[in-house]
Design brief:
The complex is a heterodimer of chains A (725) and B (157). Chain A is α+β, with helices and mostly antiparallel strands and 725 residues long. In chain A, 26% of the residues lie in helices and 23% in strands. Chain A folds into three domains: 200 residues, Aldehyde Oxidoreductase, domain 4; 160 residues, Aldehyde oxidase/xanthine dehydrogenase, molybdopterin binding domain (Aldehyde Oxidoreductase, domain 4, 2-Layer Sandwich), CATH 3.30.365.10; 188 residues, Aldehyde Oxidoreductase, domain 4 (2-Layer Sandwich). In chain B, 38% of the residues lie in helices and 15% in strands. Chain B is globular, with a radius of gyration of 15 Å. The chains are: A alpha+beta (725), B alpha+beta (157). Chain B: Pfam families: Fer2 (PF00111), Fer2_2 (PF01799).
């Protein structure tokens, strides 16, 4: 039903108001004036209008640098027919916003965005009803211009949303019956409205949790052991306590922290404690050189992810290959940071966690206090790209603040802490067997994949917080089953009559959890490399080979665009250049993405360089075109960095990748040129897009290296040293 | 503790502070400036860049006692939301940000570059920004922003 038709048919709806005050800003930690609405099925949980014509949105999702705030504002402004400048947004805060779990899996537009769209559509309908009564005109005779409801034939007969509400909250239920605007009427959705938070970043206004300065704030650093599971034997207590400005040392089991008035004092004490404390350590095994051997022979759980049995006939070629991806870091530029204050039997925590509600539950478990005593407030941090140290540092700050009632405690991890203690993206091994029939078509496909878990987010459990594993009584994290993320995108989207994907659990030496795209990165690297290998065996153009196995027109369209843009058909004529193609639909159900990598080679120097990446993305209805483009460009560059430069190194004594020298990431002079084409489909559902580029980009580069050099690199990173020059 | 005077953003600031404190912590904690950020503490990431006598320099190691004769300018000293420096304006126009944590180092480095070269090539821009790390992958936009800024500054010159 179209919105106009629906409005004509609707006679009246129950509207009631309450006098609860509007949500306030977050900065004091004071519980007065909060929007304690509770019920996410009410409009009031998602948006509120004040007397001055300002609108406040509430999202349980977190701003991670992906620009979710501007996209959600666009959605609300579109539905309400108001100027976007009227809209303010409050993000993840257990005191104010709905519980939307974690901000993960490129799901914020599909989740929060669609909830806000529906809430705004309901709000608009209720307000039109009100205006209709007030102006004595039927709804179909009314239009809305920037929140002012006007009689179409005489716009001077009007009343604004805020005049109708007079500061009272909109207390309607979200019925699901108010029809959102028809996509053909969109004025804001699908445009590139600039983000309004960048002005704070470029001028040094307070933009991050790192910038919060609470009255009387003190600084702490946590002294982490030299390696996983080490037990604290001794530390130079009197030496540290004698330091000018040191407030306290907190030692609980093997959890050790120092608190000081000045941040630099805490850092100096941290340095001494790191050097002079003694620990009982455990060897980290298997050694890195034996990691994949260990993985492939690991006796763990197995799971058939997918099995499709068809006729296997006329098998001409059979091919098998093994691909390996090492542990990768999130490697946030800003080490994790949190503030906490325990006062009057209440704990307030400021955090850049991706999930304030699950964190609150985990912290309640850590302290063994009721959740209601804790307020967790989300404030942006540096980009996290998944589960990094954000939750852990919040637990650190919580333990320290609990020990020092009345004091606001700020903890920031040191660079070494972030590099050595964040949970990494799991190393993976993927073995693929495939067959081609005598028509040059793929007839059978079999994938075995090995992976550690991609999900150890706290999720309400205290035992997943790093500090909880070192305090007394020590909590141990239960090792889960095969995590769903391990097999993400392992199943080919191509038409192959017989397919089987088997996932094998691995419990490896390093701490792992969700890193942007989870298993999709390594699975697509393997799958899209293997397709290229099969195309080569079948003596087919890798583009045509793919097209022959695809029906979905949207998949074909992204492939068409990138290959046209890069003059794919003339690619073999360029000297010392190679083009590589790859494609995937994220999660096999979200955004479509294809990419061509262009590499140039220098045979004399035995080096290759990624010169250009050209991508095309179809994420259905694009909310903010430039935001989508920015996310995709970033995904391509980040994936190129993982693929060309990165692997976590360790020895039996612990993780040795502890600085930007021992874990280098891509710097400016190595950055390829980037071009991204956005295909906007306003009448389709919006699809998560933030992780679509990670997998295809690595495969496209590997395929380009093969095209230029004839060397097929199957173990990441893709370095010039692995090429047979 | 010692009495140290630093010249930051065109003003003298008299501080009673431990003289070995690296400049970064003084700027953030004593002068309440947010722009320079902690990233690595060993001058490898560029998050903490400031202008020292018009050169882009990391502030995370050099002790404040060694900088009493240095003219220090932070991102806050370049412009503010109502009076943006052309480099700041260009970064906004190009939407050259994701998380934005690296922007301090990027803008400070770009400013130092453009002060000596108003028409830098792509290669020169990349070289000038090489020491600043970005993890979101905003690099190509940042290069565009620096070019845009150069154009603005040439028009103003």
């Amino acid at each position: 039903m179209k919105r106009k038709t629906f409005l004509k048919q609707t006679s009246s709806l129950l509207i009631s108001f309450n006098l609860f005050p509007l949500g306030s800003c977050f900065d004091t930690g004071n519980n007065n004036g909060l929007n304690l609405h509770g019920d996410p099925n009410t409009i009031n949980a998602w948006l509120q209008l004040n007397r001055q014509g300002k609108i406040t949105l509430f999202t349980g999702k977190m701003e991670l640098g992906q620009g979710i705030r501007i996209a959600l504002k666009q959605i609300a402004a579109e539905e309400l027919d108001v100027d976007i400048k009227r809209i303010n947004i409050i993000i993840a805060d257990t005191g104010q916003t709905p519980d939307e779990g974690y901000t993960v899996g490129s799901g914020s537009i599909e989740g929060s965005g669609m909830a806000i769209r529906q809430a705004a559509a309901e709000a608009r309908l209720l307000l039109l009803e009100q205006a209709s009564q007030k102006l004595q005109r039927s709804i179909r005779e009314l239009q809305v211009k920037d929140g002012v409801v006007q009689f179409i034939n005489d716009p001077t007969i009007s009343v604004s949303y805020w005049e109708l509400l007079k500061g009272r909250a909109l207390n309607g239920k979200i019925t699901g019956n108010a029809p959102p605007k028809d996509a053909r009427e969109y004025q804001l959705i699908g445009t590139s409205i600039p983000r309004d938070d960048i002005v704070n970043m470029v001028t040094g206004q307070s933009a991050y949790v790192h910038d919060i300065r609470l009255p009387g704030m003190i600084h702490a650093r946590v002294v982490r052991p030299p390696s996983y599971g080490a037990e604290l034997r001794s530390f130079p207590k009197s030496k540290i306590m004698a330091m000018d400005g040191v407030i306290d040392i907190i030692k609980n089991g093997s959890f050790l922290a120092v608190v000081a008035q000045e941040e630099y004092t805490a850092i100096k004490a941290w340095n001494i404690l790191r050097k002079e404390s003694t620990w009982n350590t455990k060897r980290l095994l298997p050694l890195q050189a034996n990691l994949f051997d260990d993985m492939l022979h690991y006796k763990g759980k197995q799971q058939i992810v997918e099995e499709i049995s068809g006729n296997q006939q006329n098998m001409m070629h059979q091919h098998e290959a093994l691909y390996k991806s090492p542990y990768h870091m999130h490697a946030s530029i800003g080490p994790s940071c949190a503030l906490a204050k325990w006062e009057s039997d209440q704990l307030t925590v400021w955090t850049h966690s991706q999930g304030v509600y699950p964190l609150r539950k985990s912290l309640a478990g850590l302290l063994n206090i009721p959740e209601q005593k804790i307020r967790v407030i989300g404030v942006p941090g540096a980009g996290c790209y998944g589960h990094n140290g954000a939750d852990d540092v919040a637990a650190d700050a919580t333990l320290i603040a609990y020990h020092l009632p009345g004091k606001a405690v700020r903890v920031q991890w040191m660079r070494e802490d972030e590099h050595m203690w964040e949970p990494y993206g799991s190393a993976m091994a993927i073995k693929i067997k495939g067959s081609i029939n005598n028509n040059g078509k793929m007839s059978a496909w079999h994938t075995d994949l090995w992976s550690d878990t991609h999900s150890t987010r706290p999720g309400g459990k205290a035992s997943h917080l790093l500090a909880a594993q070192y305090v007394e009584p020590k909590l141990t994290m239960e090792q889960g089953d095969i995590s769903g993320g391990a097999s993400r995108n392992a199943l080919p989207l191509y038409n192959i009559p017989t397919m089987k994907v088997v996932a094998h659990a691995y419990q490896g030496p390093l701490r792992t959890s969700a890193l942007r795209s989870l298993g999709a990165y390594a699975n697509i690297f393997a799958l899209e490399s293997f397709i290229d290998e099969l195309a080569f065996l079948a003596q087919r153009d890798p583009l045509h080979f793919r097209i022959d196995h695809i029906n979905d027109p949207r998949a074909l369209e992204v492939l068409r665009i990138v290959t046209e843009k890069t003059a794919w058909s003339t690619r073999t004529k360029k000297q010392d250049t190679g083009l590589g193609l790859a494609f995937a639909q994220y999660k096999n159900r979200a955004a479509y993405f294809a990419v061509v990598a262009e590499i140039t080679i220098d045979k004399a120097k035995k080096e290759f360089k990624v010169k250009k990446l050209t991508g095309a993305i179809d994420a259905g209805q694009a909310i903010n075109i430039d935001g989508l483009k920015n996310q995709t460009e970033g995904g391509m560059i980040q994936s190129a960095s993982w693929s060309l430069f990165e692997q976590v190194d360790y020895s039996d004594e612990g993780v040795s990748s502890n600085t930007w020298d021992s874990y280098p990431i891509m710097r400016f002079t190595a950055i390829p040129d980037i071009e991204v084409v956005v295909i906007n489909r306003p009448t389709e559902k919006p699809l998560g897009a933030g992780e679509a580029a990670q997998g295809p980009t690595v495969a496209a580069i590997a395929n380009a290296i093969f095209a230029a050099t004839g060397t097929r690199i199957r173990d990441l990173p893709l370095s010039s040293k692995k090429v047979n020059w | 503790m010692a009495k140290i005077t630093l010249f930051v953003n065109e003003k003298d600031h008299v501080l009673n502070i431990s003289p070995d404190t690296p400049l970064l912590y003084v700027l953030r904690n004593n002068l309440a400036l947010n722009a320079p950020k902690y990233g690595c503490g060993i001058e490898r990431c560029g998050s903490c860049m400031v202008l020292m006598d018009n050169e882009a320099m990391p502030s995370c190691i050099r002790p404040c006692s060694s900088l009493t004769q240095t003219k220090i300018i932070t991102l806050e000293g370049l412009g503010n939301p109502t009076n943006l420096h052309p480099v700041q304006a260009a970064f906004m126009e190009e939407q050259a940000a994701q998380c934005g944590y690296c922007l301090n180092g990027m803008i400070i480095s770009a400013k130092a570059l453009l002060d000596r070269n108003l028409d830098p090539s792509d290669t020169e821009i990349r070289a000038a920004l090489e020491r600043v790390l970005c993890r979101c992958g905003t690099h190509s936009r940042i290069v565009k922003a620096v070019k845009n800024a150069a154009k603005k500054m040439r028009l103003n010159a």
